[in-house]
Amino acid sequence: MTREGQHSAIHRADYTAPAFWIDTVELCFDLDPAKTRVLNKMRLRRNADVPAQPLRLDGEELNLARVLVNGQGASFKMDGNQLVLENLPAAEDGAFDLEIFTTCCPAKNTKLMGLYVSNDSFFTQCEAEGFRRITYFLDRPDVMASYTVTLRADKAKYPVLLSNGNLVEQGTLDDGRHFAKWVDPFKKPSYLFALVAGQLVGREQRITARNGREHLLQVFVRPGDLDKTEHAMNSLMASVAWDEARFGLPLDLERFMIVATSDFNMGAMENKGLNIFNTKYVLANQATATDTDYSNIESVVGHEYFHNWTGNRVTCRDWFQLSLKEGLTVFRDQEFSQDLCREPSARAVKRIEDVRVLRTAQFPEDAGPMAHPVRPDSYIEINNFYTVTIYEKGAEVVRMMQTLVGREGFAKGMTLYFERFDGQAVTCDDFAQAIADANPDSDLARLLPQFKRWYSQAGTPRVHASGSFDAAARTYTLTLGQSCAPTPGQAVKEPFVIPVSLGLVGADGRELALRTMDGNTVPSPYTFVMTQASETLTFVDIDAEPVPSILRGFSAPVVLEFDYSDEQLLTLLANDIDPFNRWEAGQRLAVRSALKAIAAVADPAPLQPLNTAYIDAMRSVLRHPTLDAAFKELVLTLPSETYIAEQLDVVDPQRIHAVREAMRGQLAVALTDDWAWAFDAHADNGAYQPDPLSSGRRALAGMALTHLCLAARTTGDVVWPGKAYQRFKDAGNMTDRFNALAALVASDHALAAQALPRFHAMFKDEALVLDKWFALQAGAPDRAGNILPAVRQLMKHPDFNLRNPNRARSVIFSYCSANPGAFHRPDAAGYVFWSDRVIELDGINPQVAARLARALDRWKKLTEPYRSAAREALVRVAAKADLSNDVREVVTRALAD
């Protein structure tokens, strides 16, 4: 037993429809931090398709005061956390009225699930199973009801009262109180319920949709933050316009509201018409937010708005279908961000950034103990399955569907999907079938049963490719094979449907025409659809051995294995017309150099992992007259330590860290003059604009400054650190200021000790900026073993608050999850710190604790002494008697054989 009940697994195969439906819900809240009263009046009816059984309602941490059935007192019993009612009246239509009166204490709700208080305001978070912490209910996504909500509260303390849908009535009550009544015209599951009450101010914008309807858009924040809401509002307007233009999906409510809170477990939540956001994804102005913040706000605002159709109007039948809404909506927000990019190079940069997240976060998950299919088969705690597999890999599965049916065909499939299922709770199979049925002549329709293995099989497929050139026959033959390693619970994998986009590049860098054996010319890039374990395709009229450019645009979420020579990779890096594979060639060269240096016997002399050809290639990219600055920055960014580790069977984190730091230092010194040119050419960008072109220039200038400060460690130069400090002081925007500060911290220069307290003094009242300040220090390179002591000191800082998820992540996660060189200490002190924090956080907020627990997912790959020490730390956490289900599931799976 745990403090949340028995931790038994829930299986997708056991799904059954609910025994009752809830048609209408009338909720009345008397809001009080210590004792909120909730009156819940429901109209229920039996599900005639399910055998008669008692009504079992979910509830957690509620004080039950009254239960009435059809206005009369009713007998009931408690079974764990469930309220059970038997012998319910059998009206002709099986319907009856149920009234439940409960109280709860939002002020003590540190889990931030259900109804809670943050900065003296009320907020809710009900996904996945938070509504049961507000009232007893059938808290499952396939029970969809119409909601009428009345909020009552002290008018002076809580002047703004918000809930889902349309405001139909408001007024004043006795004793300084007031009320607001909201009606949501659309049926929804309980996880989409929301209320907000507090001291808030709003930015408003009226818009007219394509159909002529007028809508009110509102962004609510705490007083003092209104000047940081313009970008969020602009992003919301762009989202509304894009969804209408791309998919014909209009805004369906009179108003659409966004509310920001600083205490939030997630990024944001798509509650119908009332999206609640982490402040991190709403607040921005040039003085406090970086270009990355601006980009993330645009993406997340889009994501939550797009859920209005893909998640709200059509929702999940059960939580195993989570990717039905999340994978699809991540794909939609990625497409949205790409479509807003006017230049092809900016679209390519966005695609590369998305793939980089997938490969550095999801691929390791696929290879670790928490590996699960895009549509899981079982779980113990659903909160643990809000993962990069569900979201990012799920998005790639949807992207492959679009590849197989075409952009217009995919739009047709979306239209059919909503025609069939609007207002229903459905499955991933339903979505895939709609896309296929709208495109009956497509590869997707032909291969749908096999394609759906992407939903049922975990793991990252590997595509093994080899090429053979026949000079006499003037042919080039490409052989492609696929395999997928076993994952927990899945030993054998059947072949996937894998769209492989490819082209051939001549030794002189030219794109070659593709002609098949039957004499037809196929477009380049050509998308070959793999379905077998091994397949071969041959191209004719090839005069000299080409370099194959395979998996262009990252056309499938797979690992490509091809034995490229350095010369071939340099050819692709310099000439490939596909920006993704051009970037990928540089990454492969860097990884190859890193792995060679890691495998070498440790040399007491300074490491020089990079050869002259690679350095010259990077110089050519940096100096290239036409390449986009953002693309240059991506190519010149070395693969992360996490990504390098995933290429190894046995991982020595300190060796990886030392090699990558040596590579950075070598690039810094070898390209000093080029970095100086790059900084001077890109440092001045005029008036601040967060557009892709300007952002790319600032990113490249920041990278140049970092490398110039790193080079100064070797050369003893004082000029560039001084310039960095001056830029830190004089910068007109947060991106340039923070890049300069990061350059000083990354190089461990003495001026960092002056800049850090100065930065804190400048932004001591800006919580999101202080998160950056904390994260920068916790994630700094650990050259003297001093980062863990610094992290411990940061946790004693007056501005540190463990109960705030953003602040906890800024320090603890930045160290344990994002700073492997500092975390994996030979003395195991990092692991001890991790176990202490997981246990401490679990008593406050299990969701945050479970995320932190994932930092040691891959402990079995570690070399000694790290491996034994990491296992000891996991065992220590697992031995805690009252662990939450959230954390216990993670550590139990990590320790499993």
UniProtKB/TrEMBL annotation:
<feature type="domain" description="Peptidase M1 alanyl aminopeptidase C-terminal">
    <location>
        <begin position="566"/>
        <end position="896"/>
    </location>
</feature>
<protein>
    <recommendedName>
        <fullName>Aminopeptidase N</fullName>
        <ecNumber>3.4.11.2</ecNumber>
    </recommendedName>
</protein>
<dbReference type="GO" id="GO:0008237">
    <property type="term" value="F:metallopeptidase activity"/>
</dbReference>
<keyword id="KW-0862">Zinc</keyword>
<comment type="function">
    <text>Aminopeptidase N is involved in the degradation of intracellular peptides generated by protein breakdown during normal growth as well as in response to nutrient starvation.</text>
</comment>
<feature type="domain" description="Peptidase M1 alanyl aminopeptidase Ig-like fold">
    <location>
        <begin position="459"/>
        <end position="562"/>
    </location>
</feature>
<dbReference type="GO" id="GO:0006508">
    <property type="term" value="P:proteolysis"/>
</dbReference>
<dbReference type="InterPro" id="IPR001930">
    <property type="entry name" value="Peptidase_M1"/>
</dbReference>
<dbReference type="InterPro" id="IPR012779">
    <property type="entry name" value="Peptidase_M1_pepN"/>
</dbReference>
<comment type="similarity">
    <text>Belongs to the peptidase M1 family.</text>
</comment>
<dbReference type="InterPro" id="IPR042097">
    <property type="entry name" value="Aminopeptidase_N-like_N_sf"/>
</dbReference>
<keyword id="KW-0378">Hydrolase</keyword>
<dbReference type="InterPro" id="IPR027268">
    <property type="entry name" value="Peptidase_M4/M1_CTD_sf"/>
</dbReference>
<feature type="domain" description="Peptidase M1 membrane alanine aminopeptidase">
    <location>
        <begin position="232"/>
        <end position="447"/>
    </location>
</feature>
<dbReference type="Pfam" id="PF17900">
    <property type="entry name" value="Peptidase_M1_N"/>
</dbReference>
<keyword id="KW-0031">Aminopeptidase</keyword>
<keyword id="KW-0479">Metal-binding</keyword>
<dbReference type="InterPro" id="IPR045357">
    <property type="entry name" value="Aminopeptidase_N-like_N"/>
</dbReference>
<dbReference type="InterPro" id="IPR014782">
    <property type="entry name" value="Peptidase_M1_dom"/>
</dbReference>
<dbReference type="InterPro" id="IPR024601">
    <property type="entry name" value="Peptidase_M1_pepN_C"/>
</dbReference>
<dbReference type="Pfam" id="PF01433">
    <property type="entry name" value="Peptidase_M1"/>
</dbReference>
<keyword id="KW-0482">Metalloprotease</keyword>
<dbReference type="InterPro" id="IPR038438">
    <property type="entry name" value="PepN_Ig-like_sf"/>
</dbReference>
<dbReference type="Pfam" id="PF11940">
    <property type="entry name" value="DUF3458"/>
</dbReference>
<dbReference type="InterPro" id="IPR037144">
    <property type="entry name" value="Peptidase_M1_pepN_C_sf"/>
</dbReference>
<dbReference type="GO" id="GO:0008270">
    <property type="term" value="F:zinc ion binding"/>
</dbReference>
<feature type="domain" description="Aminopeptidase N-like N-terminal">
    <location>
        <begin position="43"/>
        <end position="192"/>
    </location>
</feature>
<dbReference type="GO" id="GO:0016285">
    <property type="term" value="F:alanyl aminopeptidase activity"/>
</dbReference>
<keyword id="KW-0645">Protease</keyword>
<dbReference type="InterPro" id="IPR035414">
    <property type="entry name" value="Peptidase_M1_pepN_Ig-like"/>
</dbReference>
<dbReference type="Pfam" id="PF17432">
    <property type="entry name" value="DUF3458_C"/>
</dbReference>
